[in-house]
TrEMBL record:
Subcellular localization, as worded in the UniProt entry: Cell membrane
Species assigned in the record: Streptomyces genisteinicus
Main localization of the protein described in the UniProt heading: membrane
Name of protein: Cytochrome bc1 complex Rieske iron-sulfur subunit
SUPFAM superfamilies xrefs: ISP domain (SSF50022)
Annotated function: Iron-sulfur subunit of the cytochrome bc1 complex, an essential component of the respiratory electron transport chain required for ATP synthesis. The bc1 complex catalyzes the oxidation of menaquinol and the reduction of cytochrome c in the respiratory chain. The bc1 complex operates through a Q-cycle mechanism that couples electron transfer to generation of the proton gradient that drives ATP synthesis.
Spans through the membrane: 64-87, 99-122, 169-189
UniProt region (Disordered), positions on chain: 1-46
Subunit structure: The cytochrome bc1 complex is composed of a cytochrome b (QcrB), the Rieske iron-sulfur protein (QcrA) and a diheme cytochrome c (QcrC) subunit.
Native organism taxonomy: Bacteria, Bacillati, Actinomycetota, Actinomycetes, Kitasatosporales
Annotated membrane topology: Multi-pass membrane protein
Length: 358
């Protein structure tokens, strides 16, 4: 056997084949035992310092609890901003410029409260919750009973691995932060406007207030009101120059009609009138439209919005339409100067029947 043959026998299989091909001994065939497209699988899990050092885990727990606690303080700051800063206070903030102190404080405190809750949750998940990666095969949309059972089991495992039962400091501060953030939304309701209190139940009418003709802006006398006429009046002291004129006239607008006393059917209406002159709110009790159509022969007034019809000779009761109750009557009299005056306010709220729902 030659020395060349001996050297070829001593080469590994792949090198020997390639050597033979190079010397005319045949085609080289290189074989690979490993699949280049095989699933490499998940990398080996590397424990975090919090997994092996309880002191590090405690530091992370305190950090998360601190973020949740600061979120609660930011929420308190949000609420306090409504009390501290007036709505018209302007401050200079570089580089923004002049801004509303209230809006700036509300934005900063609410944003900080929400950010700290999110940051605390992320830090909790990254340092204390389980970080073991789990691969799961896809399954049909309709879950089988065993899949549902597995999901519930996985949920229970996740709850257990989150250590929410063991990490009471995190749990309690998280619940506190989540419970307080909605208070910001409750406080925001203040910006919808001041509480109405009893403003919807009272008007500017009071005992001794003169009835002022809205056309002439002069006090109304009984002889100024003729049978069949319709006159609109306002309470004494309410001028169009007043900043709240529209709000007040929307409640205090009154219409005056003169009816023959023998044609008045309602006893209280007759007692509250002056020589057949009756005063009723002109605000419809359906949705608050102003009433302006009067029929002399029937003593009916009609709301132009939805055709609610009231009989002014019978306590202004509803005889047609969607209105829910009669028009409120204003009790009137005559003062020493011979002018018509109110003897008090309406006994029930004017306008739509919100008050009947109470």
């Amino acid at each position: 056997m030659s020395s060349q043959e001996n050297s070829e026998e001593n080469l590994p299989a792949e090198q020997g084949t390639a050597h033979a091909a190079a010397h005319g001994g045949g085609t080289a065939v290189v074989q690979h035992d490993e699949d280049p497209f095989a699933d490499p699988g998940l990398p080996a899990h590397k424990p975090r310092i919090q997994d092996i050092d309880e002191r590090a885990a405690k530091r992370s727990e305190r950090s998360v609890a601190l973020m949740f606690t600061l979120s609660m303080l930011a929420t308190i700051g949000f609420i306090a901003s409504f009390v501290i800063f007036p709505i018209d206070k302007i401050v200079y903030v570089w580089p923004i410029g002049h801004v509303s102190a209230l809006n700036l404080s509300l934005g900063l405190t609410l944003g900080l409260a929400l950010f700290l809750i999110g940051a605390g949750a992320v830090h909790w998940a990254r340092t204390l919750m389980s970080d073991v990666e789990v691969a799961d095969d896809r399954h049909p949309i309709e879950a089988a009973p065993e899949v549902k059972a597995k999901v519930l089991a996985d949920f229970a495992d996740g709850a257990r691995e989150s250590a929410i039962g063991r990490r009471k400091l995190i749990r309690n501060t998280m619940f506190g932060a989540l419970a307080m953030v909605p208070l910001s939304g409750v406080v925001l309701l203040r910006e919808l406007g001041p509480l109405p209190e009893d403003k919807l139940r009272k008007t500017l009418w009071a005992k001794g207030k003169l009835l002022i003709n809205m056309n002439t802006n002069e006090p109304l006398r009984p002889e100024d009101v003729v049978v069949g006429s319709l006159t609109f009046v306002k309470p004494e002291g309410l001028e169009e120059s007043n900043h709240d004129f529209n709000n007040e006239i929307a409640k205090a607008a009154v219409m005056i009609v003169r009816i023959q006393p023998e044609e008045i059917k309602d006893k209280r209406e007759l007692e509250w009138s002056v020589d057949g002159i009756v005063a009723y709110s002109k605000i419809c009790t359906h949705v608050g439209c102003p009433i302006s159509l009067y029929e002399q022969q029937t003593h009916h007034v009609l709301c132009p919005c939805h055709q609610s019809t009231f009989d002014l000779s019978d306590g202004a009761r509803v005889i047609f339409g969607p209105a829910g109750h009669p028009l409120p009557q204003l009790r009137i009299g005559v003062n020493a100067e011979g002018n018509l005056e109110a003897l008090g306010d309406f006994e029930e709220p004017v306008g739509p029947a919100f008050w009947e729902r109470g």
